[in-house]
Amino acid sequence: MKSTRPRAGSARSAILAALAALVALSAFASVASAATVYMKADKKGLRFEAPKTVVNGETLEIVNQSNPKKVGPHTFSMVTKASLPKTPKAHQLCFTPKHICKAIAIWHGVKGNGPVKINPAKAGPDGWSTMGSVTAKGDSWFTGEKPGTSFEQPVNVDTSAGASRIYFLCAIHSGMQGSINVLPGG
User: Fold this and answer.
1) Are 128 and 155 in contact (CB under 8 A)?
2) Which of 18, 59, 80, 169 has the CA that lies 20 to 30 A from 2?
3) Is 45 exposed, middle or buried (0-12, 13-18, 19+ CB in 10 A)?
4) What is the spatial distance between Cα 176 and Cα 167, in angstroms, rounded to a whole number?
């Protein structure tokens, strides 16, 4: 009569296979839930590619995938929706006094055509928390001149009344704009 009891070796193999599957699923879940904004420059032009949503408290990474030697550096600057330049004239004036791109340069400690002295520029609580305007400082990161740079920190906005939306732009290329819906954390 044959025994129906599994052999020790096959039980151990089954456990190892299950553990390997869990590790693979865990790695996939980490990759799948990564919140990343990409700065791109290709046939579609200069743009941000961003997730539609993030969960408050989740880490948001900004990755520059463009070549700064070809298109220049970028900023990821959180701004109010009203601060986003909307017309060709607004884009043209963006780096002049009393306009958002000039304000972002000031957040970074830039004087005239001088270098960035504060990077990242932080306002309010830690993390991606504060949208700025011409009169109020916001959170911003400058990519610099090296290709492939990135910066990450958690999203930390007020979601006590429900989901919130963050807006951002590149101060150097004011047509690069985006937004992300921030869901309350669990």
Assistant:
1) yes
2) 18
3) exposed
4) 11
Give, in degrees to the nearest 5, the angle at Cα 174 between 177 and 116.
110
**What residues have CB less than 8 Å from 144, skipping those under 6 apart?**
68, 73, 116, 119
169: tokens are 């732009």
| Residue 175, token pair as written in the block | 């047509």
Q: How many residues does the chain have?
A: 186
Structure confidence by residue, pLDDT tens digits, 73-86: 999 999 999 999 99
User: Helices (DSSP H) in the chain: which residue ranges?
Assistant: 8-32, 68-71, 88-93, 100-107
Whole-number Å distance between alpha carbons of 22 and 14: 12
Q: Which of 159, 165, 155 is nearest to 81 (CA)?
A: 165
| pTM recorded for the entire structure | 0.81
- Report d(CA 132, CA 79) in Å as an integer: 4
Question: Which two structure tokens, joined as six digits, stand for 27?
Answer: 């790695």
